[in-house]
Amino acid sequence: MKTILTGIRANSVLTLGNYLGALLPMVRLSNKYSKDYNVNIFVPDLHSIISDVDGDLKENTIRTLKYYLAAGLEINENVHIYRQSRVPAHSELCWILNCVATMGELNRMTQYKEKSDGKASCNVGIFDYPVLMAADILLYSATYVPLGEDQFQHIELTRNIAERFNHKFGEVFIIPAETKEQVEFMGVEKPIRIRDLVNPEKKMSKSTASENSKIMLDDEPFKAAKKVMSATTDSFVEVQFDFEKRPGISNLLYIEALITDTPLDEVVKKWQGTTRYGELKKQVANSVSEMLVEFQKRLAEISDKQVLELFEFGEKYANEVANQKLIEVQKAFNLR
Ligand code: ATP
Ligand code: MG
Question: Does the active-site annotation cover 269?
Answer without folding.
Answer: no
